[in-house]
Amino acid sequence: MSALPSKFWEQLPLGTGVTLLSHDANGLAALSKPEGVLSHPNMESEVPRALLTVPYTIKGECFNWTPADIPGAAPRRLFLLNRLDSATSGVILVTANEKLATYMRELFLHKHIQKLYQAVVFGKPSEKSQLWRDRLSVQKSRAKIRVGVGTQAEAAKASESRMTVIRQKRDVVPPLALIQLEPLTGRSHQLRVQCAARNLPIVGDLTYGDFPANKAFAKATGHKRLFLHSYETSFDYEWQGKKFHFSATAPLPPEFQQLL
What we know:
The protein is 14% helix and 38% strand. It is built from 4 helices and 13 strands. Strands 1, 2, 3, 4, 5, 6, 7, 8, 9, 10, 11, 12 and 13 form a 13-stranded mixed β-sheet that branches.
């Protein structure tokens, strides 16, 4: 990989509300994605709503562009390392180094990345801290995913998350709690399904949540988003014979703070 232009990170064509959290000398970076922004576009019409507002190659999992306002600028690429649902906000990792992208995806695949999420849920957690273990099965229909819990079917996969209560608001109906979730496995919709299975549905979850409570909440507060946020990502990695530590934290959106 050739050296990055000195202002590479400053000149990223970031999507609406997307911010750069941190980057290192190896070309690894963390961005903060707002709720409603796509991790990547699936078609040209979605480019304005994506993490970067430039074309994306599905096969290469990378954004591609040439800065139009910089005379003689070389084509640039930024590789996406993980994804968040459009309704989920928070930390998302990228790299400008194709070889590092391949290496980092292996770290994700083998669960060497620590990810912490925070969520506002309806209900009262029964304990301050718990380890949640479930078996989850996934059903796909017309490009939509629906996950079930509690099945012993052969296709069901063991799923684990660690839950910690941060603070609660018990003087409202229904009560609210801000919890931290650490997924120890990486199943589709894992956190949302595990919360719902324990009568702690995430506020604003339109698939697994409490629909009457969501409707009343949106009417009372004006907030219709999913209250799930990728709060922190951290890991150690080895590159070109040296060891590095990378960590990035995306501050909680104001609406989380306002509720509790």
